[in-house]
Amino acid sequence: MNNKRQNKRKVDTVALAFVAPALILYVLFIILPTVSSFYYSLTSWDGISPIVRFIGLANYREIFTSARFGNALKNTIILTVFISVFENAIALLLALAVDNVRFGKNVFRSVLYLPVLISGIVSGFIWKIMYNYNFGAINSFFRNIGADGLCQDWLGNTSLTLLMIGIVLVWKGAGYYMIIYLAGLQSVSTDVIEAAQIDGATARQRFYYITIPLISGTFTINFTLSLINGLKVFDQISVMTDGGPGFTTETIVYLLYKVGFNEGRQGFGTAVGVVLLFVIIILNTLQQKILRSREVQM
Amino acid sequence: MKKRFLSLLLSTAMIASLLAGCGSASTQDAGDADTKASETAQESAPAESEAPAETAAQESSASIVTEPTELTFIFADGDEGMKEAMNTIVKNFNDAYPDITVTIEPGNGGAYSEFLKTKDSVGEFPDIMEMRDTAMYVRAGKLAELPEDITSLFSSVTEFDGKVYTAAMGGENTDGIYYNKAYFDANGLTEPETYEEFLELCQTIKDKGDMAPLVVGGQDIWHLGFLFNKAYDDQVISQDEDFIEHCYDGSKDFSDPAFQATFEEMGDIMQYAQDGWTSTPDAQITTFLVNDMAAMLFSGTHMIKTIKEAAPDFELGWFAIPSPDGQLRLVGGSGIGGLAISAESAKDPNKKAAAEEFIRFFFSEETYKYYCETMNCLPTTSQAPLLDVDPVMLEIVDATAQADHLSPMWNGKTGNNELPPDFRNFTYKTCIEYLQGTTDLDAALEEINKTWQTAITSFNPVTGVGITVAE
């Protein structure tokens, strides 16, 4: 009996020794900063001064009464929904096309994946130049074909700007999700497809009743990733519009950055970060619940 | 044996002389170093000289520091002219002072303020830096006080409780209209004498329809700040120089008719901006001017070099827009920013002496002349160097001398008129929304008032909230 206990203790110590390095790093770089974020969100710290003043829940009160935060939340939700839907729809279409192509499958896969390899900042700059009202490729094209009326101030027109950023995000992200969908499609057993074919199922029926249910796990992964990426959008907004014109494209993460670093209100910025953390947890839990219930296990 | 003894004797003598040299340097105390340093300030090597240190400067460097000293230096390096000027000055300084090495660290261009905060938070605050958010860093106890022999170099300085922390590198960037002189001459257009004439001029150009009257780089909101400040000076400062202080003490707010008029004046001027001004970056405005796409642009003196480099043969004209009340109000004088020394660095006597010597070197006559000419900026020193600059620049210097009112930008003021952090950007963004018609004037001003009320709960120089100075 004693021997068993000693062995268990020995095993626990050995296990702990193996886990310890990772655990220490995780606590140092994830747990401690998160806990200290909660603390700083209750202060009016400016990010520089050694003086940190405790102000209770004042930052949170401001968040929930501020029109600027409301606007940033609205923009974040619009962008997140837009990119979650369109990134996944386009990625699935691309994956189906690449999966069914007979020649040059790898070439297509690589080409469509290329935008993913470009950094957010660089892609932002490229599109910013293309969208430019006076010198951009898009308006130049319209002018060259004599369709001047179609020229728009793509990043200056407040009713278009958010959509234009959404398009860039979809363009950049779709290739990544395409690869995951492709892996999902290739994991669908050909036996099942052939059996359905023999039973007389049409291509559309095979897709809706066999392929889609069998890759529902892939949907869960992709929607979760695009949701989180949508909520974290920063690079393209920083480069393309700086949250403008006015506040038109300010998202929660961008607001966090602006108030924390530009306005010298780290306390408030951290409170925005804490709220964002809860928004992500809530939305992700809801999404997981909905998508998981539709998954089919083989 | 004799030979070996002789060589041993010679070696010993050489080592002894070397040690003696070190000894004389190390006996120099920091206080003495300060005095010596100020004496040698005038002996510094000229900025444009490619020849390294002169003997006098080499000798003097030994008395400034007691051991080889390294300093880090950061400045906003987004502008090519600034980069060129600073690289030359630092190189010349390092050549002149072999015991001191100033190393330039990248300043991250446009996002300089954020970058400096990040450097501070990761423990890499530079020894010397171009300081912009002076008040914030002074309150945080991050900057060292500059000695009297440096502050006395300037015609005016910004004080915090009687102490000076920054050496203004150039006068505040005086704004005005840069215009296409050839186009004006060809169309019989003349420089306006009044504000109304300026608006008429814009309307005339707009009616001609061959180019936009005014190019505005509204995508960079700080660029819009040039025009906003003009309107603010015209409407608010003309009536109340302490408007911001009065907003802090609650006797005024941003619904004030004068502040409303600022937005309206912006609306009057901005109707003449080019199509797509909200998505045009500052970097593109020169292209508009020199390619006959716009007749005028409103910006600071830094534009002269940019325009001349873009089109050396471009016929450039300049005029200041008078205020609606007929007065000439310009941005000018010494501002709040400038070269500063880290308080942490100043704890080391060698670093302190070396950093102060670098600032003296920067403002020595030839070096400072070179800097002002390269940057096209107005000198801030009381014994200003004679500049060999573009005639347009001389015109601006004359205008600042004749101006009825000369002051820093509204966001560059100190004391009870200092703005809460980033309130300026919020105002500009709200102004853009008003100019685009996304919001009306009442709603815009109400939003500014709300943000102000929030901002002053954590920063109010009048009540002292958020002003506590770190020891």
Structure description:
The complex is a heterodimer of chains A (298) and B (471). Chain A has 298 residues and is mainly alpha-helical. Chain A is 74% helix and 0% strand. Chain A has a single domain (62-292), classed as MetI-like (MetI-like fold, Orthogonal Bundle), CATH 1.10.3720. Chain A has 13 helices and no strands. In chain A, helix 3 packs parallel to helix 7 (161-186), helix 3 runs antiparallel to helix 10 and helix 10 (216-231) runs antiparallel to helix 13. The longest helix of chain A is centred in the N-terminal third of the chain and has 39 residues, at 2-40. Chain B is globular, with a radius of gyration of 26 Å. Chain B has 471 residues and is an alpha/beta fold. Chain B has helices spanning 2-26, 30-40, 55-64, 80-96, 112-121, 134-139, 148-151, 181-186, 195-208, 221-237, 243-248, 257-270, 285-290, 303-310, 343-346, 349-362, 365-375, 391-402, 423-436, 441-458; strands spanning 69-74, 100-105, 128-131, 159-160, 163-164, 176-180, 212-215, 294-299, 316-319, 329-331, 338-341, 405-407. At the A-B interface, helix 12 of A face helix 5, helix 6, helix 19 and helix 20 of B.
